[in-house]
Structure formats: C-alpha cells, structure tokens
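As a point of orientation, let us examine one representative protein, giving the amino acid sequence and backbone structure tokens.
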Amino acid sequence: MNLSALKSLPANVWILAASQSLAMSMVPMMILVSSLLAADIAPDESLVTFPIALVVVGTASATVPVAYVMKRLGRKKGGYVGFACGLLACGLGFHAARDASFPFLLASSYCMGVATAFGQQFRFAALESVQDPANYGPAISAFMTGGLLAAFLGPEIGASGRDLLPAPFGFAGSFALSGGLLCVAIFLFSFFKEPRRLREEAVTTDRPLANIVRSPAFLLAAGAAALSYAVMSFIMTATPITMHEICGFGLADTKRVIQAHILSMFLPSLFSGWLMKRFGPGKLMLAGSLAYGVVLLVGLQGQELAHFWGALILLGVGWNFLFASGTALLPRAYAGNERYKAQAANDFAVFGCQAVVALSAGWFLYRFGWSVLLLSCLPLVLLAGVVSILQIRRS
C-alpha cells in the first residue's frame, strides 16, 4: 500500500474508518453471544442460530430502503439513523439477556442487521469524499482496516460482558458495552462532513434494472460476492454452537476462533487490492475458491481445536478474495446514472443469499451434523470456481 497516498486521504475517510470500526464490533459480538444465549432461552434447539440469521435478514431487507434514505437525507443524517438502529439493537439485546426473552433477542438481531445495512453505505461515503479517483483504492483499504479492530473488540466485549451485569444466563453486560462503544462511534462520526454531491453521468440510455442484472458483467460480479457470503455465513454461523455446545470447547477458545476468523476476513484487504491489480480479479476469485475448498478438507479431518482454527482462518481469506473481486467488478456492469439501483440490486442479492443459508444453518447442523454441513457447501465452492474461470476467460 502507498503510504503517501494514505497521508493524502481526506479526514472524512479516517473519521468513517474509526467510527465504523467501533460500530462494526456489534456484529462479531452478536456472532459469539447470540447463539450461546439462544442455547439457553430458545424454545427449540434448532433455533439457536436463528438470531444470527436475522442479522443477515435485517441487512438484506434493508438494503434498498437504506439506499433511498441515504439518497434523500444525505450521508450524515442517514448515518445518524443507522446509529440509532444500532443503539436500539443494543437496548433490545440487553432486555433479552436480562429477561431471558428469545423474542427480544430476535428483535435485537433484526435491528442490528438494519444498522449494518446503513454501515455498508459508508464505503460509498468514503469514496465520495476523495477528489482524485486514483486514491479510491487506498481509501477503501483504509476504510476496511476498521474491520481489524472490530474483529478484536466484538468477541472481547461479548466474553468480558458475560457476567458484568446480573442476568439469568449472562451477557446483559455484553450488549451494554456494545452500546457504549456505539456512543463513542457516534461522537467520532459527528466530525464527518457531508461530501459534495456527485453529478450523475450523462448517458444516452438508462437501462431497466432487469437488463442490468441479466448482463454477464453483473452476473459474474454479483455471483462472486453472493457465493463468498453464502459459504462463509453457512459455516461461520454454525461454528460457535458446534464448538461450545456440541464439542464442549470453552468460551475463551470459541471467542479466539471467531476473532481469528474475522481478522482473516479483513487483514487480506491490505494486499488483495495489489494482487487484484497484478493478476486480475478472475484469478483472485479462483484463489478464493481454492481457499474455500481447503476449508472443507481441513474441517472434515476432525473436530479438534486446530481444525476449527485452520478452517475458519481460511474461510476468512477465501471470503475476502471473492468478495473484494466481485465488488471491484461491479462498476463494469452499470453506467454512472445506473449506480444506485445496480448497487442496491447487488447488495440485495448478496445479503439475500446470506440470509437463506444463515437461516438454515442451525436446523441443518442439528439434523445432519458438522461434517454433512461442510459437504453441503461443496456445490457452492465448485460453482464459485466456475464463475472464476468464466471471469478469467472473459478478461
């Protein structure tokens, strides 16, 4: 990464990176806490991963409305709406833990998903704050590094807050700490300045959305991103309950595996942009597909701590390569005045696929077991490889 380019980035980029790193910690906290809390308060064991799935459902269902809100209110006012949804999620989660209420936990999860949809829009705000398009890459890299802090903070406050405040099964303090971090994020975000609105590019035609999403460029870009999330979410959602409830690993071990996984999702962002420029998005997608294949091989070798460590770290790397490549390819699928509806369609497809697999992860795990869950990902991994090869040939 070019350090001089980083130094030239506007303050807005760093403000967004700092505030979003704190706000993003809600999701890793929820990944660790919700399934463990649900194991004690859910009416049926097959529903223990349902709260995590509802985070994804909330994100998927809110992508289009959130894009409209951002367009109408602007990035700053829209950002405050997103933070308010996050605070509501923490408050509902606190009551869920204190009152041992599964419905409150589900409501918290959904609101957290809506807040995440607002957070997804911040990457566009970072790009709009940069005057020179040559600095788009460093801006996204700087913004994405916030995920590294979130990867540590989220599981840490989840585990540290377990017995911080009285609750029948713990974790009320986890949601309270998360709400405190979110207040700090709001304070940092208050220094953000609304970027200059971009003029729509004049083009001869404004294609219907159906024509855009049927184009090979859109299908390959959205396909890579959707498959990256589908495989990652299916395995990641089932991991905490598999380790803690089925295999009997302690909360500390489970927390560290989740932290390592989320770190491996964002750490490759420091060099994946260079790899993409050097070898092309298609080859990076293929590398991500191969990493997913190795995830299945490692996970099927056994259910010792080392197997979970290796599989979840490779899962994060594979996600990064596939998702980053799909995101970089997406602008090739639309003209400037088509970007809002194309981006909304892409995010809806990506998070919609993630929602489907996350909703089914708990049921699938308890019905068929960890090994069959991994094997069921094989068709998706093979499909990701096919999409990668098609992109290489298209290039």
